[in-house]
Write a structure and sequence with these properties.
The complex is a heterodimer of chains A (197) and B (255).
Chain A lengths: L2 E4 L6 H10 L5 E3 L2 H6 L2 E4 L5 H10 L3 H5 L5 E4 L1 H4 L2 E4 L5 E2 L4 E7 L10 E9 L13 E7 L1 E2 L6 E6 L3 E8 L2 E4 L7 H12 L2
Parallel strand pairs in A: 1-2, 1-3, 3-4, 4-13, 5-7
Antiparallel strand pairs in A: 5-6, 7-10, 8-9, 8-11, 11-12, 12-13
Chain B lengths: L4 E9 L2 E6 L2 E8 H11 L4 E5 L2 H4 L6 H9 L4 E4 L5 H9 L4 E4 L1 H5 L2 H10 L4 E10 L2 E6 L8 E6 H11 L3 E6 L11 H8 L6 E4 L5 H11 L3 E4 L1 H4 L5 H10 L7
Helix pairs in contact in B: 1-3, 8-9, 9-11
The chains are: A alpha/beta (197), B alpha/beta (255).
Chain lengths: 197, 255
Amino acid sequence: MSVAVVDSGVANIASVTAALARLGVDADVTADAARIGAASHVILPGVGSAAAAMAQLRAKGLVDTLRGLTQPVLGICLGMQLLFAHSRESGGVDALGVIDGTVEKLRGGPGMPVPHMGWNRIMPRGPHALLRGVDDGAFVYFVHSFAAPAGRDTLAVCDYGEAFTAVAGRDHFFGCQFHPERSGETGAQILKNFLDM
Amino acid sequence: MLARRVIPCLDVKDGHVVKGVQFRNHEIVGDIIDLAARYRDEGADELVFYDITASSDGRGVDRGWVSRVAAILDIPFCVAGGIRSIEDARAVLARGADKISINSPALENPALIDDMAREFGSQCVTVGIDSREETGDYLVYQYTGDVAKTVAAKRRMLDWAAEAARRGAGEIVLNCMNQDGMRQGYDIAQLRALRDAVNVPIIASGGAGAVAHFADVFERAGVDGALAASVFHKRIMTIGDVKQAMRERGIAVRV
């Protein structure tokens, strides 16, 4: 197994590589298209804004590389949002478009400040290899202001005043809106499931 | 429904975890990595590391341990102490911390909060406030890591908290100095006053002494998290004990 973590320049790379190391995987942090293409698994982390992250991917010449990957790909937090067709963040930005849907701002409400930050429950919509061993209502750690509404490619939802996509999957592209690298045993299980694909 | 967070705080001094009574007479209670691993395994929702000498001495955190902590923790953690600039914050976040917390440097230069929120996002920026009840008001203190250097910041806590939130603080940790180390319960009245004044997440600090104190502060002050140090370090209770008591009172907890 060889895992590439895409160095998008605006990411929480250290915590992701540490989580992989705890699973016995020495990941290659790289922005090199050939090395990303040659990996058996690719992780796209991300914090910051969708527009800045897409600009980084374009500047590094990685947009077509990522769209064309055929091995399992896991986007984390903003990295997951980039897998969708479009994000409404910063006035709207086209993203990678490998998963259907548009990323919207969380509505929030009384007692529900945005960003949505902390431990919340996810509800899998049904059995899936990525969610093997994950209980209904398992707690995971979220930090985000935007999310994709539940749609065709939703594998698990979270409820924060509205049901949004917590886990998405289409073909070999997957995404977690939360941070599996900071989500205790549940997060480690999901990362392990991904690496087992 | 977000789970209410139980957060052990590890006060770090010269590479060891220490705890003093009312911020004085610090005693060594253990190794950073050993304690971090223990709290992770007990079910802590997050950890906070304060280098309590850093800000008053004018030196930065020893950042070596931040990487070691990031390597073993699978929960979020925050680093405080001696973070005085964007560059300080960037270095700590790059080593794997999820948040940074600023206290005295924000009082010296409130625009630091704006700058950090713009650079890293509000979710990374916690503002710590040390406050003491005096003459019918809550007043902010500065440089509390060293009793000889502690001074009044000449600000009202509620004013400063509102300003911090307005400038982009993503969370406020309110350490109620009257209660710190006394184990008589959190300062419900002061925390409730803050809850009613700002809309950002609030972490209660200072005074935990019994499992019921945690449930009390969540129910009565409406805080998002509760921080404690000595009761966990000295094994007076485990995090599991605290969460069990919270669950029995119907408070959402991560199990």
